[in-house]
Structure formats: C-alpha cells, structure tokens
Amino acid sequence: MSRIDYSVWDHIEVSDDEDDTHPNIDTPSLFRWRHQARVDRMEEFQKKTQDLTKGLTESRRKLTETQKKIQEMSLSASDEDKADLSKLKTEEKKLKKEERDWDRKLEDHCREEKKMPWNVDTLSKEGFSKSIVNLKLEAEEESEEDKEKKHKSFVEKYEKEIKHFGMLRRWDDSQKYLSDNSHLVCEETANYLVIMCIDLEVEEKHALMEQVAHQTIVMQFILELAKSLKVDPRGCFRQFFAKIKTTDQQYQDAFNDELSSFKDRVRARAKIRIEKAMKEYEEEERQKRLGPGGLDPVDVYESLPQEMQKCFDDKDIQLLQDVISKMDPTEAKTHMKRCIESGLWVPNSKPDEEDEKEEDSTSEEVKAEPEEAKNE
User: Residue 309: which residues within 8 A CB-CB, separation 6 or more?
Assistant: First the structure.
C-alpha cells in the first residue's frame, strides 16, 4: 500500500493571524506588519524576476541584430567590410556569453522561488475571472463573382417588389411594406435602387429619379444602422423609422444631406454614361459611312480646300475640273485619291475602259460622276 507524502506541507507559511501573542502586544498591528513584510518580500522577488527577464530579452535582441549584420556582410567581398565583419564576430561571442550569464541567473532565481514557502497569497491561484460567450463568426468575405451572382439571382426573384418599394413616398408606407417583405432589407436591394436611379436620370425622368433616390438612402441608412449595432438589418429597420420620424433634427439633417449628395452623384454618373453612349454611337455611325479605302468622308470633306468643298456642295463637275487644273498636280491627285477612298467621289467605270491603264492626269479623273457630298 502506497504512503502519502506530506512533506510538501512542511513549506507552508502559516497565516499572519494564527500565532498567539503576548497580551501586552497590539495583535492587529502585529498581524498587519507581518502581512506587509511578506507582501514587500514578494514584490521585491517579483521585481527581480522582471529585471532578469528583461535583461535576458535585451541580450537576445542584441545578439539577433548582430547575427543579422554578420549575415548581410558575409555577402560583401570588400576589405573594409571584412574588417567590420571580424569586429562583429567578436561582438557576437561577447553577446553569446552575456546571454548565457543572464539565462543562468534567471534559472537560479526560479529555483529560489520554488524553495520559498507557500502562504495564503500563493497557495492557490485564480482559475478564471471572466466569462466568455461564443459569438457567431463573421462570414468570409465574398468574392466579386459571388456577389454578382447573388445580386443577379436576388433581382430576378424580387425585382417587382424592389421597384414597388422604390415608388413609395410616406414613412409609414415604407415601414409597413418592409415589415411585410423583410427579405428586401439587404445590400442587394440598395444596389438595385442605385442602378435604377441612374437609369431614370439617363432617361431624363428627373422627378421619378429623385423619388427612388429617397428610398435608396432609406435603405442605406438602415444598413448603416445595422452595422453600427452589429445586428441583422431585418431586425433594426423599425428603429430607423422610429428615429427618422421623431424630432431628432440632427439625424434628419444628416439624412437630407446624404440624399442631396447622392442625387448629385447620380446626375454625374448619368452624364458620364450618356457621354459614353454618344461616343459609341458616333463611332458606329463613322464605321458605317467609311468609304472603300477606309476613310471617313466627313473627315476628308473637312480637309479639302474651300474651293473644292464648294464644288461638292454645288455638285458642279465643271467647276471641280477648273479648281483642280489650277492646283499643284501632286496636291490635286492626293485630294482626289482621298475622296475616292472615302466614297466622297465615285469614279464612273465603263466596260471598255477596264483594261486601260489609269492615267496620271487628274483632269481625267474628274470626268466621273460625283457622289453627293456628305456634310454635317
């Protein structure tokens, strides 16, 4: 049968108020003195532990920095660096010795601590002093592709309900509608309303855009309130309406300022979209009117001398021949070549002239029938 070893209890320091004292001694004062003396000894011992730990940590930090410098200088081959490298290696040996000294001192100190008798303050330690409640982990951030798919799926399912909410005007109507359709209180609804506002502004439906913009800010304020309270938006939209309908003037001013700023952003975004659409339309039209040589007849016409422009405006072939005859032959040929490549001038090809060589004389070229000049 195993025996129980009670020797561990031999190193327990008795309580400060257990000893019997002489009647002439102020017992409470003696107990307070004993307790204070023991506390001072413990604090002094703890301070020494902290000093030794700090010294060891600092020594290791210096050693790590020196070893890093040695590693960096080892890559250099200059004589000056080699001399510095030798000094650093000497410093490294010194720091290693210091580290061992600090480590030994700390170990000796820890052994002394184990030999110290237990007392009422060290006999037991607090296991825990706080309660921890498990919180729901935040969902991982969605990728842009996942967000787009989620938005598309949501809009396809609830587009009609979102549009209806966007057309509401009164606070009470909006609150009741969201109470009946709480699934609409989400980021996807806010995003769709933003796009809807821009579309309406592009279509020049300004009054309707301002109405939907109001509902967009309503949804965005609800979402922001949910973030600040760290709750589901569906559970706090009533708080928003309660706050906005009261006499909280500061909150109402913040709402109106954001609404005004949002409408300005919508107008600016719509303007950019319209300008982009116009540029795309103009490019499509330009591609359609390109001549057989890939040149734009409008650009070519604008590059012609005024005398030649007048000929195309009046459709006067004789005048065109006269103008060309007075021009430098090389310049005249260049202009006529660009007119043909842009389709501004269409040569009249005859069957019996197919095998004839093209004559250099520009006066022969203008015998063709001109196409109607295109002018903006």
Answer: 301, 373
